[in-house]
Design a protein that fits this description.
CATH class of the largest domain: Alpha Beta
CATH superfamily of the largest domain: Glycosidases
Helix content: 25-40%
CATH topology of the largest domain: TIM Barrel
Radius of gyration: 24 Å
Distance between the termini: 51 Å
CATH architecture of the largest domain: Alpha-Beta Barrel
Structural class: alpha/beta
Number of strands: 19
Strand order of the largest sheet: 8-9-14-15-16-17-18-19
Largest sheet: 8 strands, parallel, barrel
Shape: globular
Number of domains: 2
Number of helices: 19
Length: 543
């Protein structure tokens, strides 16, 4: 029980072990039994009487909580809900040999569980991972596989970044040009920001059908993961405007899906026609996902110059009684949050939207520019997700070494993530209570495929899972537990970065994929972001 990750609240070892055979019986409420079975596929557990594993519902435990008692005669699980039952199953999986994480049982492996007692519950309701599928598209199989890995680490939110300047990634039946035009680009930049541009000359694209999205959401729900879609507006809109330029503030302008990284001045108009367009798109996505508690609407890095240059937008701003484009930006996001609220969904925004003001009180703020702006959002009464660039942006390189593959910057280590405090002790009790969780983020400028995704996400994602579940920095025993846990990732086939450095084939080589140590330091980035978040008009990015 000493190698469990994330660490449970209570884990007490007792003498002896319980032998478990493949195809063993499991009994209890059908939904809870199914959740346990999904967590232990290699065992092929069968519902039945006189079961080796008995599952019971206990609502008094609280959301996502569970208990496990293992004796030499049986295994008893209590769970508050389906999620708790699934996490109990994941814990049992970790108590078994690492071979339990394989897709099929190996001959000669004995399934033995150590006797003892576990009582566990998460510190935060939001324990997530963000995947940017706009910069680089990841096929459905990669998304489903990531969901499996999140579930194995008791992470319960998959934040899907479905739109950006570089691509629109979901079917729209009402506005088909979104996926017909906005989902692909002719080429992709291969150089670093500030250098002479170089491109690969290879078309890139893809999108999920609404049926794909429904499948992803159902697959996630079964594994206690909620999909949080993001349509990032009103900025980051080159792909939308390439398909429907009339939705821009200057209709005469023409746009293309961007083939480079960075921030574009492309921005949607805030006029009623745009609101109607987005309402329709929201309805399509929500309809596909099914019950959806959250919808992320972005609000970050908006260049408002085209609003100021548009006679129609200026007239609309005056009609609303607003004094500036910045106030109009805040009004627009509030209007979108109202639309979502009418559909029973809460809006989530990046922290620029909070700084702009005028948010609905129930809007969730995702703080990426540092913990100071997170604290300000919490102090203002908003539920807040701690997702600062350092240490939770895992597109940053894991070491300041030229052996690493190219990353956005350097360096964010496993130890950095493990030391993160999502709700710092020096905050007030009220501020800490409004932090509903944290997540790690995978922006995909430098993550072109599933193998690179594995490398970036793990094992730093293991440290993030520990912090998100326990609510505080990892303890001194984390490194040892992580070492044992990596054997489970090996069994799962995860191509993670070894703690000692990249394998020869994981290195950046000698070309443009080679990392450039010291070029962009995360400490300097965080200092700049903290300054910008504190400044008036900080919603405007530096181009």
């Amino acid at each position: 029980m000493e190698d469990l990750l994330p660490r449970p609240r209570v884990a007490e070892r007792a003498p002896g072990a319980f032998g478990l055979s493949s195809g063993a019986a499991i009994s209890g409420p059908a939904g809870l039994v199914d959740a346990v079975r999904l967590a232990l596929p290699v065992l092929d557990l069968r519902p039945g009487s006189h079961a080796a594993i008995q599952v019971a519902e206990d609502p008094s435990l609280g959301p996502e909580a569970y208990g496990i008692t293992i004796t030499a005669a049986e295994v008893r699980i209590t769970a508050a809900d389906r999620a708790g039952a699934h996490y109990a199953g994941q814990t049992l999986r970790q108590l078994l040999p690492a071979e339990a994480f394989r897709a099929a049982a190996l001959p000669g492996v004995a399934w033995a569980l150590p006797c003892g007692r576990i009582a566990d519950a998460p510190a935060f309701p939001w324990r997530g991972a963000h995947l940017d599928v706009a910069r680089h598209f990841f096929p459905k199989r990669e998304v489903l596989r990531l969901i499996d890995l999140l579930a194995a680490h008791k992470l319960n939110r998959l934040h899907l970044h479905l739109s950006d300047d570089q691509g629109w990634r979901v079917e729209s039946r009402a506005y088909p040009r979104l996926h017909e035009v906005g989902s692909h680009r002719d080429r992709t930049v291969t150089g670093f920001h500030g250098e002479e541009p170089a491109f690969d000359g290879i078309p890139h694209g893809g999108h999920y059908t609404l049926h794909d999205l429904a499948e992803i959401a159902a697959y996630a729900r079964a594994r206690a993961v909620t999909v949080v879609p993001e349509i990032d507006v009103p900025g980051h809109s080159s792909a939308i405007l390439a398909a429907y330029p009339e939705l821009g503030p200057l209709p005469e302008k023409r746009y293309r899906v961007l083939d480079r990284w960075g921030i574009s001045p492309a921005i949607l108009s805030p006029l009623p026609a745009t609101v109607d367009f987005l309402a329709t798109v929201f309805d399509e996505i929500i309809g596909a996902l099914g019950p959806t508690p959250y919808f992320h609407i972005g609000g970050d890095e908006c260049v408002l110059d085209d609003w100021a240059a548009s006679e129609r937008v200026r007239a609309y701003q005056a009609e609303l009684g607003l004094d500036s484009p910045s106030e109009l930006h805040a009004w627009f996001l509030h209007r979108l949050a109202d639309l979502l609220a009418e559909r029973g969904v809460r809006a989530v925004v990046w922290d620029e939207a909070f700084v702009s003001g005028r948010l609905r009180p129930d809007t969730v703020v995702m703080a990426w520019r540092g913990m100071e702006v997170a604290r300000r959002a919490a102090a203002a009464g908003h539920e807040t997700i701690a997702a600062p660039v350092f240490p939770m942006y895992l597109d940053y390189a894991e070491a300041s070494s030229a052996e690493e593959p190219a990353g956005l910057g350097d360096a964010t280590t496993v130890a950095d993530v493990a030391a993160f405090a999502p709700a710092p002790a020096e905050w007030t009790a009220e501020e800490r209570a409004r932090v509903i969780g944290t997540q790690f983020l995978l922006w995909s400028e430098w993550i072109p495929d599933g193998r690179t995704l594995d490398y970036r996400a793990w094992p730093r994602g293991c440290a993030a899972a520990e912090v998100a579940w326990t609510g505080h920095p990892a303890d001194q025993g984390f490194t040892g537990r992580l070492g044992a846990h990596l054997k489970r990732l090996d069994a799962l086939g995860v191509e993670y970065r070894p703690l000692t450095g990249p394998r020869p084939w994981q290195r950046g080589g000698t070309g443009w994929r080679r990392h450039r140590p010291g070029r962009v330091r995360v400490t300097e980035v965080m200092r700049h972001l903290a300054e910008s978040a504190a400044a008036p008009g900080s919603a405007r990015p530096n181009l």
